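Bit of a strange request maybe. I'm writing a small parser for structure token strings and I need a real example to test against, not something I typed by hand. Could someone generate the tokens for this chain?
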Amino acid sequence: MRKTGISKTDAEDVLSVAYTETSRAWDDIVDPEGFLWDRVSKRFLDHVRKQKQRDQEFLCDPSEKIAHVPAPVDGEPEGCVGLIRLAELITQLPPDDQKVIVMDACGDSKEDQAVALSTSPGAARVRLSRAKKKLDVLVKKDAEEH
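Reply from user aminoacidic:
Good idea to test on real output. This should exercise your parser:
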């Protein structure tokens, strides 16, 4: 699992599920080590498949997940950036910055963001902060141009 880059937390989850499945079938198992190895291998492959599926469906268009959110009703039009324009500005950020901003807007936890970025939660928080600052600069620049 280390060779594949799976996080320690995910590896522990895979192993925990495999142990649980092994303990449930304990009375019927002839070779416990072989059975456990089989379960770990299968749960690991399940994890990899889910991760690939999540990665593929996540950022086709990074703004897609937040473009449906309505603008605030009480906000002054000149002080707000339209959501479509905001989505366009987000696409100008680097891919990891796009990912962390969209995940934060969707309410994903810092731990989920860290897993998606293959980093620690602290580094994900720093990435989010820097991404927001970059986006703020783009928004201000866009407001000056229009």
